Amino acid sequence: MNNTLLPKTWDPKRAADEVLRRSITVTAPPIQGAHDADLVIVGGRAHIVVAVNDLRAGHGDRWPETYCTMIIVDIATMTVIRSIPFARSEQSYSNTTLPFGQCFVPRLIQKDSNTVRCYFTSQDPGIREAQVWYIDFLLDQEEFVDRIEKVKLKTSLGVFDMQPCHFHADAAAFGFRKPAVDYGLYLCDSFKEFDGQVFVAINNYPGKQNALARVSPSFDMFEIVGHYNEPQELDLSESAVNRLPDGTWIAICRQDTGNCNYVFTTSPDGRVWTTAGEREFVSRGTNSKPTFDFFNGVYYLGWQEKAPLGAVDRSIFNIDISKDCETWERKYRFVSNHSFQYPTFKKYGNAIYFTASQGTHSYGTGGQDRIVFGVLETLS
């Protein structure tokens, strides 16, 4: 069987260069730092949520000035309509007030025909347990509701507020040995639907802890399906999940030790996972968030390649495609001296759209960071 998807003359870098040429920057002053956006498109408008700050470039998980905002883009004209901050330190709502601390790693999903639900983590490391919250955006009014609610976490030990301690206790019950930390519990991957149910990969970034979670029908609780942390000495972190053609679950995981290349783990049921290991089609990877999507019968695997000595960190991002997850071809090779990292890809109509983080350094040692938005490709 011929699984070739690209012509022999295909140039991945030229294709990626054209994608970047057509993209637009959606963040603007006073924003200085911006990182890790997520994306939902409804009614011809892209709704992009991102953690930002107005004081300095880059990002850090101990920066209380970091807040979450939604940027709305008209995709027909590729213009920004408005930006709406929705979660920041000590912000008051009709039902409660957020505590002092950072609002970080927002994610969103279309809950129903008139509602986009946004999730975010509120944290103050070393002071209190972090908490994942949600707030709803009403599409007909183009406004956020004036209340937030705590997200729940369902584990083998019970139902709790979605906090790092409960995530860690459940993992420890299944053999996780690393110490608990009181912050860093995030919705890592984008939401994905399989067999009529919605799933998401979650992680505790500083705790090096990962799991597959099922989203409740009411979108207010995440149920742990299974943990994947082995081998623990590799410090596995941010991951992206999908399913193979035979139904097997597969996750590509960031590695924060050793050679920092990506590793893969699989599971027949999402509960029990194999010990993760490298695969030959991904080499020279570096520690950054991967992507793993499935559009129109084709898998899209995105991963950060280690930049050459002297180059901007996270400046190379590859997207490989496959029909069977065995034979892979390089479709895009993003190379930018502004970096290209933490992208999100979403299908809308007959096209794949994306957001990505860019800056002069992955942690913003200078200059202004930005979020870009554009069309990756039109589907046949």
Structural features, described:
With 380 residues, the protein is mainly beta. Helix content is 6%, strand content 47%. Strand 6 and strand 7 form a beta hairpin. It is globular and about 60 Å long. The two termini are 21 Å apart. The mean pLDDT is 95.
**Mean residue pLDDT:** 95
Distance between the termini: 21 Å
The backbone outline, from C-alpha atoms, is globular
Number of helices: 2
CATH topology: Neuraminidase
Give the structural class: mainly beta
Main sheet properties: 7 strands, mixed
Sheet-strand content, in percent, reads: over 45%
Q: Portion of residues in helices?
A: under 10%
Radius of gyration: 19 Å
Layout of strands and helices, then pairs:
Elements: H1 12-22, E1 24-25, E2 33-42, E3 45-53, E4 67-74, E5 79-87, E6 102-112, E7 115-123, E8 131-138, E9 143-144, E10 149-150, E11 152-155, E12 158-161, H2 164-173, E13 185-187, E14 192-194, E15 197-204, E16 209-215, E17 221-227, E18 236-243, E19 249-255, E20 263-267, E21 291-295, E22 298-305, E23 316-322, E24 329-335, E25 341-348, E26 351-358, E27 370-378
Parallel strand pairs: 11-17
Antiparallel strand pairs: 1-27, 2-3, 3-4, 4-5, 6-7, 7-8, 8-9, 8-10, 11-12, 13-15, 14-15, 15-16, 16-17, 18-19, 19-20, 21-22, 22-23, 23-24, 25-26, 26-27
